[in-house]
Prior knowledge:
The longest helix has 26 residues, at 342-367. It is built from 14 helices and 22 strands. The chain has 464 residues and is α/β, with parallel strands linked by helices. Strands 16-19-20-22-21 form a five-stranded mixed β-barrel.
Amino acid sequence: MNEYDSGKMADILKDSHDLELTQDEALADVLLLNTCSVREKAQEKVFSQLGRWRKLKAKQPDILIGVGGCVASQEGQAILKRASYVDLIFGPQTLHRLPQLFDQAIKQKKAQIDISFPEIEKFDHMPEARVEGATAYVSIMEGCSKYCTFCVVPYTRGEEFSRPFDDVIAEIAGLAARGVKEVTLLGQNVNAYRGNMHDGGSADLALLMHYVAAIEGIGRIRYSTSHPLEMSDSLIQSYAEIPELVSHLHLPIQTGSNALLQSMKRRHTTDEYRDIMRRIRAIRPDISMSSDFIVGYPGETEQDFKDTMDFIAEINFDHSYSFVYSQRPGTPAADFDDDVPLGLKKQRLALLQQRLSQQSANISRKMVCSTQRILVTGLSPKQKKQLDLSAYDADKAVAVDFDAGVIGAGAKNSQLTGRTENNRVVNFTGNHDLIGTFVNVNITAAFSNSLQGELPSGSRHSIA
Ligand code: SAM
């Protein structure tokens, strides 16, 4: 979601002030920091980055420094106490007001702060999205109304609100017309989507995905991130009815202990999670599952942790996200005794991550000798590096691929890269006109971060 928001900030300032994105801070006129406050570590990084930028501003006082995202939303004016040289402070719901804040900061020569929650207004003020390849993120809802005890999101992004159905469909149709083949529908609780329809009705995520799948060119749909409470019958049934919906589901559970689930106010049990899984696996037996885990939540006993480890083995989770519990100010759990020592939290996290890595390595190994449908996204990193080096040779004409990489002219058999439904990177040899298409690839080897594949013989150009 933050990546998506950062892209939007760049689009907005390009549109309003013709500002170009640069990765080199020494060249920048405006330095923007998009922040996350879901864990303390991410929050602390904000102030160390601002400290480094202070030196740049001392040399060039005209540089504008902005802080957006959830730390800005949570801290607001308080950011100026620790970093008085910041010029713009805006929240996730006011990033569309950047151009005005920018102009006012210059005119009034004083810091501008807008961390209000004008909700849907944001989406009505976005320029057309940039398309940089065959995949795109589309934000369809924001915020969270679940109020899990540990989580700061409802306070920084606000309650759940959904974009109108027609707006989402129009955006995706526009992306598809510009070559996008795969969309990831985004939201903090994306399966809580309830978008107003022009006839006065309301669409849930399942209905939205039926319409998205019907858009010409869209061959793959993902959604992230979801909440077990919102796995409705219609959403589960989508796995039977929408072939474009990938066989991969990211469904956060946080812990395998029912006592902790209750304390976290997740409002479901491990058995209810198992039941969702049972029903989806009855439709898609090979679906890949991933999740989020919090280790060392207040009161976590050895038995609670063992329950989590057993649950991970039982569901056979694939690549997942796991974190040490981080006490967040303003959340209900901030009043609980943070009683698991940090050393023990880290020890448990290491064990849990080791199990998840073993499981995902086993899943990768089992994929060897299977045929996978992949979306080809560009040149493999190795090929890019080689061609970047050879691009210095003036005799070699170059073309630019979807990933902004460089392809030697006439590079018929490039090392290409793509992604499987369960999000594995596959490198294989093929003609670069396959970039941006779906192909079937035989998997020949599994490595820790990628798979090797080859096009079936006689089908070097086959498009599945
Ligand atoms: N839909 C998701 C759900 O069901 O919880 C919400 C995703 S949340 C924005 C991202 C993840 O950050 C959570 O799933 C959780 O694992 C992690 N997280 C949130 N608050 C945390 C905290 N205080 N400490 C550690 N991890 C946290």
